[in-house]
Amino acid sequence: FLPETVLAAPEKGFDGIIATFPGADGTTAALAQSPLPVVLVNVDDAMLKKRRRPTAHIRNDNAAIGRLAAVTFMKKGAFASFAFIPMNKEEWTSERGNAFRKELSNAGFDCRLFESTSFAEAPFEDHDELVAFLSSLPKPAAIYAARDECAVRVLAAANAARISVPEQMALLGTDNDEFLVRHSNPPISSILPGHMNMGYRAVREMDIMLRKRT
What we know:
The protein has nine helices and eight strands. By secondary structure, it is α/β, with parallel strands linked by helices.
């Protein structure tokens, strides 16, 4: 989305906007000001939460995703250590990681958190830190990555540290990005959230708001 596109939408005959990512600078403000009904899919922004026009928010249950990751590992066998690798410092990452760690804690397991000194500004410049972190974990280790892109970074760091996957380290990502998970070596296991269901729900919510206008 571009701000100009959002602001011009009413004049061009659009009835509503479904947004999954605000896009360019200024688009969030344009969405907040738009008179059209807006459905926001996995968009978490304080400005948009204050919209006074018809708005629907649809989000993944990130806590449930994190719990599922923990349960999956616990069902797979005995691990000497567990760790969560966040993607960034955004809320959805924390929700997945906190739920993952809490589920393990409830079952009596400790879970380490990788705390990068650089990913907030440069998410792909913490390779050496990640190598050192993975090397320090007792093996076999179970690693949950917040997203598949993050899991690819973990796999690269494991290869650099000469940690065998999956023999010494089990790795689980999220989103089931088929290109990433299938073309990694070895392929990465990944949790598939209900992305398609969110799309259907977004359309249903938009339909409800539009019917209320007629």
